[in-house]
């Protein structure tokens, strides 16, 4: 009596321990081809039914075309060149369904001569954190404003309230700092200051010089740096 054991596809691929809980991260704006990490699933069937093929599918809210997975190696790479965006809209993670399938694929060089048509698709949830970068500049709705100040203005009087926004996601990169470019006109050091956090420009006397409509400088131009 000879008994031939014919392998059946009776085992699904299984994600290896911890694979879907890796702390995967990708920098905003990464170039295409950048490696994010890799996934591994195994299948205990015989050779016809144990080849694992990987695919990745964005969940609602995650854009198509940002991340690819090598179907054979399971390596995750950046797909869209420079397209991963943390800022607009503010995004912290890319969310995917990943699938490990044991469907026999002819072009692997393995003949699909198995008789069992069963195919297992093992899904998993994958989350990739986006690292923000400082790729947005502060912008102001009014890059140039003209204000009038009484010539008898006193120290501390408000001159103008500046306002700028920066679209970067993280506080570190979107906090705007206001700075008067005193190097352009050093005389301003004696007359004006700006609160670096609030953007409020005030009259700020540091010497005996005061604002004087009738003197040599009835008008002052203040250049600011926002960063
Ligand atoms: Ca299998
Ligand atoms: Ca910024
Ligand atoms: Ca950014």
Automatic annotation (TrEMBL):
Q: Where in the cell is it found?
A: Membrane
Note the topology in the membrane. Answer: Single-pass membrane protein
GO biological process, alphabetically ordered: homophilic cell adhesion via plasma membrane adhesion molecules
- The lineage's top-level taxon is Eukaryota
Which residue positions does the secretion signal occupy?
none
Entry's InterPro entries?
Cadherin-like_dom, Cadherin-like_sf, Cadherin_CS, Protocadherin/Cadherin-CA
Question: Does Iron count among this protein's keywords?
Answer: no
Checking PROSITE patterns in the record gives:
CADHERIN_1, CADHERIN_2
Keywords associated with the record: Calcium, Glycoprotein, Membrane, Repeat, Transmembrane, Transmembrane helix
Outline the extent of the Cadherin domain.
18-140, 141-224
List, alphabetically, the GO terms of the cellular component aspect.
plasma membrane
Gene3D superfamilies xrefs: Cadherins
Any one GO MF term held by the record is: calcium ion binding
Protein known as: Midgut cadherin
């Amino acid at each position: 009596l000879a008994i031939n054991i014919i392998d059946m596809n009776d085992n699904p691929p299984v994600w290896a321990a911890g694979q879907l809980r890796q702390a995967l991260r990708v920098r905003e704006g990464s170039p295409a081809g950048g490696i994010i990490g890799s996934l591994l699933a195994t299948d205990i069937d015989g050779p016809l039914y144990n080849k694992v093929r990987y695919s990745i599918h964005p969940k609602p809210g995650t854009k198509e075309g940002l991340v690819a997975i090598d179907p054979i190696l399971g390596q995750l790479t950046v797909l869209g060149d420079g397209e991963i965006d943390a800022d607009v809209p503010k995004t912290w993670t890319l969310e995917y369904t990943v699938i490990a399938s044991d469907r026999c694929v002819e072009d692997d060089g393995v003949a699909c001569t198995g008789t069992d048509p069963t195919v297992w698709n093992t899904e998993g949830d994958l989350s990739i954190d986006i690292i923000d970068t400082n790729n947005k500049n502060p912008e102001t709705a009014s890059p140039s404003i003209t204000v009038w100040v009484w010539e008898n203005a006193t120290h501390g009087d408000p001159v103008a309230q500046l306002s700028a926004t920066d679209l970067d996601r993280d506080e570190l990169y979107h906090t705007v700092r206001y700075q008067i470019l005193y190097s352009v006109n050093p005389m301003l050091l004696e007359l004006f200051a700006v609160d670096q956090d609030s953007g409020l420009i005030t009259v700020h006397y540091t010497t005996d010089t005061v604002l004087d409509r009738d003197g040599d400088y009835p008008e002052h131009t203040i250049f600011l740096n926002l960063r």
